[in-house]
Amino acid sequence: QVPYFETQPLHSSQQKEKSYANGDILLSLNVKINIDLKLLLMQYADVLEIVSPQSLRDELYEALKIGLTNNKI
Known about the structure:
alpha+beta
């Protein structure tokens, strides 16, 4: 997914902070946390990791956990 995020930034403030040997990258965004951001990040929950802020990471983790429980087959 790295080439996608490099050519289609999540936000205009997106900056590449670091590249890793395994091909991963660390991106930073300078944004206000709101429902639109949370929904955008949830779209990519399978391919990204939120490093900070921890409160956002925790909130989205709980939402995903509840979603998995609610939709268990």
